[in-house]
Design goal:
This protein is mainly α. 59% of the residues lie in helices and 0% in strands. It is globular, with a radius of gyration of 18 Å. The two termini are 26 Å apart.
Length: 138
C-alpha cells in the first residue's frame, strides 16, 4: 500500500502518491458503501462515527457488533467486546490504546496536505470528488 518511506515524504510528494496507491482501496470502500444502501448483508460505517467522540465510538462499535452477531452472542459477550474495543478509541487516553501512538496531525500539516491535493492527477481527483458527493461529503 503506502510506500515504506511515506513518513519521510513531503505533503507535495506524499499526497499525490497516496491518492494513486489507494485508488483500488477507495474504489472498494465506495463499492461497499453502495452495497450497504441496497442490501442488508453489508454494513458500512464512516470513520467520523468512530472519531467524533467516545460516545460515538461506543455507539458505532455496538452497531457493528450487533450487525455482525445479532443475537448469536450473549449480552455479556457483547458488553465485553465493547469494553475491549474502547482501548482503541483515539479520544480516550492514547497511552492506553493498542497502537500506543498519537494519530493526530497538527493544523499546519493538515493545511499543507490539503494544499497538496491540487497536485493529484486531475482525472483521479475528479473521481475522488465524485465519491465525496456520492457519500455526502461535498
Amino acid at each position: 500500500m503506502a510506500p515504506l518511506d511515506i513518513m519521510n515524504l513531503s505533503a507535495a510528494e506524499g499526497v499525490p502518491l497516496i491518492a494513486f496507491t489507494m485508488e483500488k482501496v477507495i474504489d472498494d470502500m465506495v463499492r461497499s458503501y453502495n452495497m450497504s444502501l441496497t442490501g442488508d448483508d453489508v454494513y458500512a460505517t464512516k470513520f467520523e462515527n468512530f472519531t467524533n467522540s467516545s460516545d460515538g465510538f461506543d455507539s458505532e462499535i455496538a452497531r457493528v457488533y450487533d450487525f455482525m452477531f445479532g443475537d448469536l452472542i450473549s449480552p455479556a459477550e457483547r458488553e465485553a467486546i465493547i469494553v475491549e474495543a474502547r482501548n482503541e478509541d483515539l479520544n480516550r487516553d492514547a497511552s492506553q490504546s493498542y497502537s500506543g501512538s498519537d494519530h493526530h496531525s497538527d493544523n499546519s500539516d493538515m493545511e499543507e496536505a490539503l494544499a497538496a491535493t491540487r497536485l493529484i492527477n486531475a482525472t483521479l481527483l475528479a473521481k475522488y470528488e465524485g465519491y465525496q458527493r456520492l457519500m455526502g461529503y461535498a
